[in-house]
From TrEMBL:
Residues 102-134 are annotated as: Disordered. It comes from Tenebrionibacter intestinalis. One of its GO terms (cellular component) is cell outer membrane. Belongs to the outer membrane factor (OMF) (TC 1.B.17) family. InterPro entries: OMP_efflux, TolC-like. This is TolC family protein. Its main location: membrane. PANTHER family: OUTER MEMBRANE EFFLUX PROTEIN, OUTER MEMBRANE PROTEIN TOLC. GO terms for molecular function: efflux transmembrane transporter activity; porin activity. Keywords: Cell outer membrane, Membrane, Signal, Transmembrane, Transmembrane beta strand, Transport. Residues 1-24 form the signal peptide. The keyword Transmembrane applies. It is found in: Cell outer membrane.
Length: 570
C-alpha cells in the first residue's frame, strides 16, 4: 500500500512538472524575432549523450521554475507579460526562423545517416519534451538585413562623381584661401609689369619755384622770385646693364609661376579637405544609425527585464546590468552624434552653406594605383613651385651681380631755368655711365644671400619629393589594408550577429548562458559593425589622400565623362 502511494505521488508530481514546464515553454518569446505561429511544429529533441550534463542542468532549472509557480506566484504571469509586449513589438519583429526539424534533417542529410534521421524524428514521442521549444539558429543567408542597413547605398560611380563635384565646386567658390592665393598671384603679375616697365624710357618731369637768393656767390637775379619758376624734363633710357633688367624680369616671372602653382595647391587642398569631411559625414551618419539600432535593442531588453523583475525580484540584478549597458549604448550614440555634428560644422566652414546629407557610399571603384600616383609627381604643383622658386632665386642673384657693374644710359634733358645772363639751358642728350665701385661689401652679401636662398629651395624640393612619395606609398597601403579589414569586419559582423542571437536564445530559453554573455555578444556585434564602417571609410579617405598627394584630385573630378566644369569652381 505504501509503495503504491509513493508511486502515485511521484507520477502526479511528474505530470504537474510536465504541464507547468510546457506552460513555461509557451511563455517564451524572442526579443529580436517574431513569435512562432500557433501552427508551427514543436520539435522535441533528445539530448545527445555528450550533453548529459547540460540536460541535467536544464532539468533542475525546470524543477525550480515549477516550484516557483506552485508557491510564489500565479501561473502564467510571464505569459501575460509577454503577450502584452508582443502586441507592441509585433509590427517591427523579424520573420520566424526555421524549426529544429529542418536543421536536424539537414544535418542528417549531410552525413547520410538514416539512423540519425529516424532518431531525430523519433524525438517527437509522447515521452514529453527534453528541451523547451526554441527556434533554430538561422544561417547567414537566412538572416534579413537590419533597419540600419536597409537603405540602398550609392554605388554608381557617375553618381558619386557628380555628387563630389557639386560639393567641391561649392567649396572652391566659397574658399577665402583660394581667393587669397589668387590675390597673391595678381600681385606677382603686377610685379612682372613693374620690371618690364624698366626697359622703356623713364621720363621725369620737375619744376622749381624760387623765393629768393642770399649769401655769397654768383648773382642769381634771374632766380629770385616766383616769376622765375622753371620746368625740367629728363628722359633716361637704359642702353646696357649687363642683363640686370632681364634677370629681374626672369625672377619676377618665376615668382608669378610659383604663385599660380600655389593657387593650384590651395585648390587641391580645399578639394581634399571637403571630400574627406563629406566622407566623414557619411561615416558618422551610418555609425549613428547602427548605434541607434543598438540602443533600441538594449531598450527592448531593459523593458522586458523590467516586467520580469517586477514579478521576480531575484532577477533584479539582470535588470541593473541591462540598464548599465543601455546607458553605455546611449553614451556611444551621443559621442557619434557629436562627431556627426562637428563634421557638419566643419563643412559649413569649408562650403559656406549647410551641406546636404550624403548618401551611404559604396565607393570601391576608382582606386588609384601606386605607379599611377607616383608617375604623376613630375607635374606636382608643390614640386614645380619649388623649382620655380629655385629659378627665381638664381635670377635674383644674377640681377644683383649685374647691378654692381657699370651701367650705360642714354639721357635727354631740358630745363627752362635761366642762368645769370638770363639764358635758358639748351636741350641735352648723351650717354651717362654709372658704376657703384665700392659699397662696403653689401652687394656681395646680398648676392650670397640670394644664392643661399636658392640652395635652400633646392633642398626643400627634395624633401617635398621624398615626403610625397612616402605619403603616397603609405596611403596606398593604408587604403588597401583598411578596405580588406572592412571586408573582414563585415563577415565578422555577420557571424557575431548569429552569435548574439544564439546567446540570447540560450539565455532566455535554455538558461545555459548568463545575461552578461548576451550583453557582451551584443557589444561585440556593435563594435564590429562600427569597425567595419570605420575601416571602409578610412579606405575611401586614404584613396582621396592618394589623389591629393599626387595632385590629381581636381583632374579626377573634372575629367569624368558627362561632367561639366563650367560654373562649378573648377
Amino acid at each position: 500500500m505504501d509503495k503504491k502511494w509513493v508511486i502515485t505521488t511521484v507520477a502526479l508530481a511528474l505530470s504537474l512538472t510536465f504541464i507547468q514546464g510546457s506552460q513555461a515553454a509557451d511563455d517564451d518569446e524572442l526579443l529580436f524575432s517574431e513569435p512562432q505561429p500557433a501552427s508551427a511544429p514543436r520539435f522535441k529533441m533528445d539530448a545527445p549523450q555528450s550533453e548529459v550534463k547540460e540536460a541535467a542542468v536544464m532539468g533542475q532549472a525546470a524543477e525550480k521554475d515549477s516550484a516557483y509557480h506552485r508557491f510564489a506566484r500565479e501561473p502564467g504571469s510571464t505569459q501575460k507579460f509577454q503577450q502584452a509586449k508582443e502586441k507592441e513589438s509585433i509590427a517591427d519583429a523579424l520573420a520566424a526562423p526555421a524549426d529544429y526539424r529542418q536543421m536536424a534533417q539537414k544535418s542528417v542529410s549531410e552525413t547520410g545517416s538514416d539512423e540519425g534521421l529516424a532518431a531525430a524524428q523519433g524525438a517527437q514521442s509522447d515521452e514529453g519534451p527534453r528541451t523547451v521549444n526554441a527556434p533554430s539558429v538561422r544561417r547567414m543567408q537566412d538572416i534579413p538585413p537590419r533597419a540600419a542597413a536597409m537603405a540602398k547605398p550609392m554605388q554608381s560611380t557617375a553618381a558619386i562623381h557628380t555628387w563630389f563635384q557639386k560639393m567641391v565646386g561649392i567649396a572652391l567658390n566659397h574658399s577665402p584661401e583660394v581667393r587669397a592665393a589668387l590675390s597673391d598671384m595678381e600681385a606677382s603679375s603686377w610685379g612682372v609689369k613693374q620690371v618690364q616697365g624698366q626697359r622703356y624710357p623713364q621720363v621725369t618731369v620737375g619744376t622749381s619755384a624760387p623765393f629768393g637768393s642770399f649769401g655769397n656767390g654768383a648773382s642769381t637775379r634771374n632766380n629770385n622770385s616766383l616769376s622765375d619758376t622753371s620746368v625740367s624734363v629728363t628722359v633716361n633710357t637704359t642702353v646696357f646693364d649687363w642683363g640686370r633688367i632681364s634677370a629681374e624680369l626672369d625672377s619676377a616671372r618665376e615668382g608669378l609661376n610659383a604663385a599660380a602653382l600655389a593657387v593650384k595647391e590651395i585648390r587641391e587642398q580645399v578639394a581634399s579637405s571637403t571630400m574627406a569631411e563629406l566622407l566623414n559625414l557619411s561615416r558618422y551618419q551610418e555609425s549613428v544609425k547602427v548605434a541607434q539600432a543598438y540602443v533600441n535593442r538594449m531598450q527592448k531588453l531593459v523593458t522586458m527585464l523590467s516586467g520580469i523583475a517586477s514579478v521576480d525580484k531575484g532577477r533584479a540584478s539582470e535588470l541593473v546590468q541591462a540598464r548599465a549597458r543601455l546607458l553605455s549604448a546611449q553614451a556611444q550614440q551621443e559621442q557619434l552624434q557629436h562627431q556627426f555634428d562637428n563634421t557638419r560644422i566643419k563643412l559649413v566652414r569649408l562650403m559656406g552653406v549647410e551641406p546636404g546629407l550624403p548618401p551611404a557610399l559604396r565607393w570601391n571603384g576608382d582606386l588609384i594605383a601606386l605607379n599611377t600616383a607616383l608617375s604623376a609627381l613630375h607635374d606636382h604643383p608643390t614640386l614645380k613651385r619649388g623649382e620655380a622658386e629655385i629659378r627665381s632665386a638664381d635670377a635674383q642673384a644674377e640681377s644683383i651681380r649685374a647691378a654692381g657693374l657699370p651701367k650705360v644710359d642714354w639721357v635727354v634733358q631740358k630745363s627752362t631755368s635761366k642762368d645769370q645772363y638770363g639764358d635758358e639751358d639748351a636741350w641735352y642728350t648723351g650717354l651717362n655711365v654709372q658704376w657703384s665701385a665700392f659699397s662696403g661689401g653689401s652687394e656681395r652679401a646680398q648676392r650670397q644671400a640670394a644664392l643661399a636662398k636658392m640652395r635652400s629651395a633646392q633642398e626643400k624640393v627634395q624633401v617635398s619629393r621624398y615626403e610625397l612619395e612616402y605619403q603616397i606609398r603609405n596611403m596606398v597601403e593604408t587604403r588597401d589594408s583598411s578596405l580588406q579589414r572592412a571586408d573582414n569586419y563585415v563577415r565578422l559582423s555577420a557571424e557575431t550577429d548569429r552569435v548574439r542571437d544564439m546567446f540570447y536564445r540560450q539565455w532566455y530559453h535554455l538558461g545555459t548562458r548568463t545575461l552578461l554573455d548576451v550583453l557582451s555578444a551584443e557589444s561585440d556585434h556593435f563594435n564590429n559593425q562600427i569597425s567595419a564602417i570605420n575601416n571602409r571609410y578610412d579606405g575611401y579617405t586614404s584613396n582621396v589622400s592618394v589623389m591629393y598627394n599626387a595632385a590629381i584630385l581636381l583632374n579626377w573630378l573634372v575629367k569624368q565623362p558627362g561632367m561639366k566644369s563650367r560654373g562649378q569652381g573648377f
